[in-house]
Amino acid sequence: MPPKFDPNAITIVYLRAVGGEVGATATLAPKVGPLGLSPKKVGDDIAKATGDWKGLKITCKLTIKNRQATVEVVPSASALIIKALKEPPRDRKKVKNVKHNGDITFEEVVSIARVMRERSMARALSGTVKEMLGTAQSVGCTIDGQHPHDVIDAISSGEMEVPDS
Asked: How far apart, in whole angstroms, are the C-alpha atoms of residue 77 and residue 54?
């Protein structure tokens, strides 16, 4: 028999969910069921916390203590870039293979890099900005009308400055 579950222990569970939607309880049950939580209640909490990320796949961090779950949204680089494009929410069941061909400013990329800074492997902010530009390239958007890789080359050659603070 497994050991008795300690109610004071803090357990952290990461899971991917579609923003603003109640996920299938069947996928939540194996993760939160053994911790003594109701999958339906956790699903509702996740839907409430991810309301402003409607239609985007987003990573959520569940911190569980005393059989109470607190939901924290941990956005990925691509989710932040797609949100910066300010596209209207779409029905993911009907619209497939969406092309994100919008345009975002370099300042928005720098602000996204600041959000992602602690999870980045780069030494300086300029490296994190380059990571975000690479993500923007794979998403398919442009930066100030330019292709993201041209902006990466401009930063590498020193033509473009990345603010430090």
From this structure: 16
Q: How far apart are the first and last CA of the chain?
A: 54
Mean pLDDT by 10 residues, the chain (165 residues): 67 81 77 80 83 80 82 80 72 60 79 80 80 81 80 77 67
CB atoms within 10 A of CB 101: 11
98, 57 contact by CB (below 8 A)? no
Cβ distance 136 to 109 under 8 Å? yes
